[in-house]
From TrEMBL:
Annotated protein name in UniProt: 3-oxo-5-alpha-steroid 4-dehydrogenase-domain-containing protein
Protein keywords: Membrane, Transmembrane, Transmembrane helix
InterPro entries reported in the protein's UniProt record: 3-oxo-5-alpha-steroid_4-DH, 3-oxo-5_a-steroid_4-DH_C, SRD5A/TECR
Record bears the keyword Transmembrane: yes
Matches recorded under Pfam families: Steroid_dh (PF02544)
Domain of life: Eukaryota
Length: 287
């Protein structure tokens, strides 16, 4: 049953249209190079419209994997495919695993605190997630390759892609957790001091330090870099012709790169350039 006739799941014509438009997303991100306004995370602002950070992340990021799963279950029937092969489910599975971590586990269970976000950020991220999921879902649930033979013929590339995807995801999680540890440590200290003084413990919201472990020794946004490696591996699983995978990677890089450079400027202002000890924003030794 279609949720929106012709769009969810998408007809071939509408899917092709979305893929064409989605390839132009980097044009929108040029605004991030000239505007410093990014009301979320480190650069969040005080606004009465703000959304709670954890709820905001969970809701905006869940839209992608839920949409993808819906298309995986609805589109094959519409185009007369009785069962999708394992290769298609491998791509969907990797995507869902990533977003179960990013949209559910990280904000709702793991992150000690998250800054509030402006609804503008939520709307942009929600739109990104839905458009991206339609682009990817259309390909892997019906309009891209859907035969066992196709996947069997490129199993070596899939294996290498899966290994890269997996290391990228683990790296992303490791560096995310290094940031969490900063606030967990601050929380432990504040609990200890509260116990000694008999006063209530202060919140750890907005406590920042320079992360130092793993690739953070070289770049301030090591978690971003690992996420790019992860999605590059995922594109490889799908193959050179998997254009929604390529667009996803390019779109992520074009929005996260200016954000990382803005983050570096923020670190320089808060801690001083000398404290960063030559760390780059996101690509070791380069940017
Ligand atoms: N931002 C994007 O455009 C984007 C796009 C796609 C995927 N992602 C992925 O989503 C994840 C989160 O992205 P993000 O942009 O929100 O990352 P982020 O700004 O580095 O924040 C991640 C979390 O760590 C906290 N944090 C950040 N820097 C800290 C520091 N120096 N000391 C202590 N705590 C710190 C943040 O708290 P506050 O919220 O209080 O700042 C937040 O809870 C990353 O793994 C990234 O790869 C991001």
């Amino acid at each position: 049953m279609a949720i929106i006739e012709g769009w969810l799941p998408p007809s071939r014509e509408n899917w092709e249209f979305i893929c064409r438009v989605w390839a132009y997303f980097p044009v929108i991100t040029t605004a991030q190079w000239v505007l410093d306004w990014y009301p979320q995370g480190k650069t969040s602002i005080e606004s009465r419209f703000n959304i709670n950070g954890k709820i905001g992340w969970a809701t905006m990021e869940s839209a992608g994997f839920i949409t993808l799963l819906y298309i995986m279950y609805s589109l094959p029937q519409e185009v007369g495919i009785s069962e999708l092969p394992w290769g298609n489910w491998t791509l969907a599975g990797c995507f869902v695993i990533h977003y179960l971590y990013r949209a559910v586990a990280a904000p709702l269970f793991l992150n000690p605190s998250m800054s509030p976000m402006h609804p503008f950020v939520w709307i942009m991220a929600f739109a990104f997630q839905v458009t991206n999921a339609v682009s990817i879902g259309g390909y892997i649930a019906g309009y891209g390759p859907t035969t066992q033979e196709y996947w069997a013929s490129r199993s070596e590339f899939m294996f290498v892609g899966l290994v890269i995807w997996c290391w990228g995801l683990l790296g992303n999680m490791f560096h995310d957790d290094d940031l969490r540890e900063i606030r967990r440590a601050a929380n432990r200290k504040q609990q200890r001091e509260a116990k000694e003084s008999g006063k209530p413990a202060e919140s750890v919201d907005k406590i920042y330090m320079i992360p130092k472990n793993g690739l953070f020794r070289y770049v301030l946004h090591a978690h971003y870099l690992c996420e790019w490696i992860e999605w590059a591996g995922w594109w490889m699983i799908g193959g050179w012709a998997f254009h929604p995978g390529r667009n996803f990677l390019i779109n992520e890089i074009t929005t996260m790169l200016p954000r990382a450079l803005q983050g570096k400027r923020w670190y320089e202002k808060k801690f001083g350039r000398e404290k960063l000890e030559g760390r780059k924003a996101v690509i070791p030794g380069v940017l």
